[in-house]
What we know:
By secondary structure, the chain is an alpha+beta fold. The protein has 2 helices and 9 strands.
Amino acid sequence: MRALLAIAVMLVSSAAYAAMDIPARKAGLWQMTMNFEGGRIPQQTIKQCIDAATDKMMNSMGGQMSKENCSKQDMQRVGSTIVVDSVCKGPMGGTNVAHAVVSGDFNSAYTVKVDSKQEGGQAMPGMPPGGMKMQIDAKWLGPCAADQKPGDMIMGNGMKMNVRDMPMGGGAPGGGMPPQMPKR
Length: 184
């Protein structure tokens, strides 16, 4: 189950912070609920405490990873939504072709719908071979709790980690966030 949570963190980090020029999220505690279609990963819920600096750091890291891993990164605004089409290196080898639609106001709630197809490489554990569909529903819950610091992520099972402490690089001291998908 821990591996599934790590994959979920990677996917939410990459998809939620993927599209270029998405407005900054309101500071405070956000709850992100992820639903995966067709795989063996159950619904995942993550709560994340952010401030302006953490949100900016995640945007910057997502952008840098996209430059390094994506051969195509197209974004367009269509009405009140943002549509992102990307072609990136897959986390298990091969190529990941993704279409993401982002909607919401980033002050109270937003939704990210991702349709991803994998070409080549190994299938990710728990995911159907060839691709997947995922939806992230995020809502602002209010201020972070007194015992939380910006970057803290609390998984549905109670496991807590901080994106600033994750081992994969980025612009923050001590860490960054996992790779993959478009950029924010």
